[in-house]
Every structure is written in C-alpha cells, then in structure tokens.
Fold Protein YIPF.
Amino acid sequence: MLQKPGAPEDAGAPQFAQVFVLVWAGAAVVTLNCRLLGGAISFFQSVCVIGYCLLAPCIALLFCRAIFLAKEQTVILFFIRFFLTMLGFGWATFASTAFLADSQPAEKKALAVYPICLFYFVISWLIVSRSP
C-alpha cells in the first residue's frame, strides 16, 4: 500500500511494519474503546471481528493494484479506484458495526461506531492515496 513503484526490493520491510503496526494498534484501540464503553464482547472476539472485516478493503486493494497495471493512469481510473476503495470501506464498516455496535449499551452505540469508522477510513485512505 505504501511502497512506491521502482523502489528497491528490500524497501518493503519498513512499509510492511508501518501497516502492521497501524492495523494492530488501531484494532487494539477500537477494541479497548468497545470494552471501556461496557460492551458485552471479549477483547479477542472484537479483534477477530475487526480483522475479518478487513477482507473488504483487502479485496479493494487487490483490484486497485490490478488497475495500476494499466499503462496510463487517468482520472477515470482514479475514480474507479476511489469507488472500489469506498465500497470496501462501507462493507467493512457496516459488517463490523453490525457485530460490535450490538454488543454496546443503546446510549453508547455512537461512541463505539465512530472509532470503527475512523479505523477503516485510515486503512482505506492508505489504499486510495497510493499513486503510481
């Protein structure tokens, strides 16, 4: 997601580490938030739901990488990438919200949903902002 084309072969390790830490730190913060709000779900269940819901942005990433195989990147291709990424963002947010928001008390659902949306937005931003 973060690596530029033409970078040396061994330049992928720092980018992998950045994404790895971002995903795990973000999942831990979202999970901790759910637990502190009084959610009826365990820490590891919440981390698993957040991880499984990353499938949609990962699929969007694969399609975006396939679009980069085109010789010339046009505005239309950017909007296709943007649409695919937002579709993955929406799917991930909806799926994880369906699981995690129902485990929260009714008056605290919005407080639980906001960090989930923010987490998937940051991941989606990394996917769509990569330029060839």
